[in-house]
Amino acid sequence: MRLLTKLSFFLWFSFLAGPLWAADALPLAGEWRCRLDPQDTGITAHWFATTLPQTVRLPGSLAENGLGDPVSLQTKWTATIYDSSWFYNPRLAKYRQPDNFKIPFWLTPNTYYVGPAWYQKTIEVPAAWRGRRLLLYLERAHYATRVWVDNAEVGQQVSLLAPHQYELTGLLSPGSHTLTVRVDNRLETLNVGPDSHSVSDHIQGNWNGLIGRLELQAGPPVFLQSVQVYPDLAHHAARVKLFVKNTTAKSLTGTVQLAAQAYNTTTAHQVTPIQADFVAKPGESLVELTLPMGEAAQLWDEFHPALYRLTATLRPRKGAADEQQVSFGMREIKAVGNRLVVNGRPVFLRGDLHNGEFPLTGYPAMDVPAWTRVLTVLKNYGFNHIRFHSWCPPEAAFTAADQLGFYLQPEGPSWPNHGTSLGDGRPIDQFIYDETTRMAAAYGNHASYCMLSAGNEPAGRNQAKYLADFVKFWQTRDSRRVYTGASVAMSWPLVPENEYMIKSGARGLPWAKERPNSTFDYRAAIEKFPMPYVTHEMGQWCVFPDFKEIDQYTGVYKARNLELFREDLADHGMADQAEAFLQASGKLQLLCYKNEIEATLRTPGLAGFQLLGLQDFPGQGTALVGVLNPFFREKDYVTAAQYRRFCQPTVPLARLPKFVFTNDETFEAAAELYHYGPQALPQTTLTWTVKTANGSLVAQGQFAPTAIPTGTNTLLSTVRLPLASITKATQLTLEIAVPGSAIANDWNFWVYPAQLPTLPKSEVYYCTRLDAKAQQVLAKGGRVLLNAAGQVVKGKEVAMSFTPVFWNTSWFKMRPPHVTGFVADPTHPALADFPTEAHSDLQWWEIVNQAQVMHLEDFPAGFRPIVQPIDTWFLNRRLALILEARVGPGRLLVSSANLAPADNAQRPAARQLYYSLLRYAQSARFNPVTAVDLSVVKDLFETPSREQFSTFTKGSPDELKPQRK
């Protein structure tokens, strides 16, 4: 493997310049000629010497210009389809037709093209540019370019993340010329992995085109190729490296001047300029200067994103001057023990993954306002950090992050696990070095560029050594950020050389086996690691689709996946429940994110988390894991202010051993304050209250005034509340707050009577099987309460947990759980003695976790159960946990959750629900509206579902399977 030497590193920096800011520029945006080259014959046929027949508008993509092939079953996708078997269920055949083609795996582009495409434009070079240096600047291409001027080939470049720049000085004279650019987006050009977010159909799409600034630039023959600024906080200075290029045949002398001024701050600061002589020999030269910033230098961080604009002016004693402006921040980031420290202050990364979600264009936004909008949304939700999964954003993203105060981790544009690997001598090995060097040259001055990873979850026999060498390489060459080998899950090898690590061990909710509490944290997962530990891809909790989102897809991508799910829901008779499913599953999703984020905030020594995610991931089977959609817009079940209560620089925390109590107990919650604000808080008094669901005050108090240091958690004391005064089933809320501020957090808990009232004897027949006596009671017009836990056959294949679907069931081949919460009618009289909202909350855990559900495929259309689990949107089965029906002249109430009285001694919520159901069944209000045949009810316990995943996972005819290259 060839690594960059010190000389080659210098050459990379000098060659990979930013734009010539002081140069004249001829914009090339507008109409271009175009021709697609699917057979790759254009080079041998000398298309650069012909007039291309079609027209497109650039910047833009082929899809935006309506070019490419219609999407069909024969489309050769770039991305991997991990499991398409369920898509071949016969009932989905209508979505595999040419006139109604809908794929569920990702968003659908209007057209699709992978291969070479030729772009051509006639340009007029001004007469005033004679004798000047000329440069073609293509801000972002996707992703291999080859350039001709008239009939002369200029060269070729491959980059997924940096501008493609071509020297045209000797090829262009004043007058008319033909510029031809061939763009090739085939993965064979350089295989970075088909699921890398830089190229994958799962996210931004494998687009073909030219975007961002397209221009021809003219500048002097001796110029600043690159200006790189290295803040030195200890000496109140900035070290500046100026890469000078002399394209003449003679050495030249002159002066270089540096001046800097603060901006993006309320405090003005003008830095005293400095000047020095230089000698520029033909070729490249390096001039290094130290710019004193003074004691008044303002530091950049998330709270005070003060920036400086450095102007470097190169004045040869003969010839034209050159000037370049760069933005930088006085900021340093280091790993100190297990902490990440910015400017000497510990930070906790509250991070989100940006996966390349651009649902209108399929390619990255190239303007600062677009990125400012996205980052402002993230900041409003309490985040201070973004990881760009296996891709690097354009300069506009860094500029916006600089101004708003965000810590960014771009990555090498590779997920080298599917289709390629690291450390095995493949071209990707050198390409990662080349690309990250291009990143340092193009974006290295940005204060927000704080962290770097080689990519995501690599494969390779020698990956650990490769990644260790990668970290060491960058540690010795650029001190402006911290480095890690890769973002990985638990099974990946540890790289001790990492300055920080991103690993998945410190995540998840232990609720599959443990009663919910808020005392757990992740200290055991991180304690053996000596460097800062940032949690990898935390969350991934799903919500039901928001079909209102479909109309937002007004660009080149359409949400055909959501359309399919919506139509399938209607085919199952539940179209009218779509919004209820969204709201109920959204509340459960939010509950899971709140508890998992709080667990990270409680964990001593954790350096932060990277959430997957705040917004949906529209690919990989459609992973609806966000409280926002891919447009970074709300879904209306949580606001930014509500989310910030548990995700912001200062968050009250409470360690509750459980959330369900009886009134013979004392409620206890140990309180603490997570504080990573800009400075310590002086003597601070926090208050606590306990209120009922309707807001009535039950108890209140305050904690002793305490000094709150920043960069840690401060223990307060314990809230204690005897519960004897709570005489009926009640939901209560504990809130801890800093009065007069937006710092507050809350937790629901439930109190049930330790001794329930004795119900009068009644005619209700309680049973655990639909036995002969139950059928006789129903036939005689009697009442039956059936506790059917463990007896369900029709629906046995559906796995229900308290927590929702993880990522999505398609991507993991229907791995359980399959259910994403439930909907219930809180006003239904069956639940009169069991306070609940319309969605699952923590009091339901002991009832629904690992419970069986009933599949109502043969029940009457429109039948609605009292408690209805929400199935995975890939199958949309009509399910029930609690239902009632009129069976003949009788009345039947059924629960497939275990409510057996004998099992409820240590399950107060289950005992209370049983009481509520039995009391209802005894009452005159027990009068089911819908009649169901006894045979249909019996089938629940005798006959397997006709429609279940296992019946169509055997594979399908090859000619029907979506193809990929």
UniProtKB/TrEMBL annotation:
Q: Please state every residue range assigned to the domain named Glycoside hydrolase family 2 immunoglobulin-like beta-sandwich.
A: 222-331
Q: Which UniProt keywords apply?
A: Glycosidase, Hydrolase, Signal
Q: Which domain of life is it from?
A: Bacteria
Signal peptide residue numbers: 1-22
Q: Which residues form the Glycosyl hydrolases family 2 sugar binding domain?
A: 28-187
The residue ranges crossing the membrane are none
EC number(s): the record gives 3.2.1.23
Q: Which Pfam families match?
A: Glyco_hydro_2, Glyco_hydro_2_C, Glyco_hydro_2_N
Keyword hit for Nucleotide-binding? no
Enzyme category, top tier? hydrolase
Which InterPro entries does UniProt cross-reference here?
Answer: Bact_Beta-galactosidase (IPR050347), Beta-gal/glucu_dom_sf (IPR036156), Galactose-bd-like_sf (IPR008979), GH (IPR017853), Glyco_hydro_2_cat (IPR006103), Glyco_hydro_2_N (IPR006104), Ig-like_fold (IPR013783), Ig-like_GH2 (IPR006102)
- Residues in domain Glycoside hydrolase family 2 catalytic? 338-482
Q: Which reaction is the catalytic activity of this chain?
A: Hydrolysis of terminal non-reducing beta-D-galactose residues in beta-D-galactosides
Its family remark reads:
Belongs to the glycosyl hydrolase 2 family.
Q: Which PANTHER family match?
A: BETA-GALACTOSIDASE (PTHR46323:SF2)
**Entry protein name:** beta-galactosidase
Q: Which organism is it from?
A: Hymenobacter cavernae
Organismal lineage: Bacteria, Pseudomonadati, Bacteroidota, Cytophagia, Cytophagales
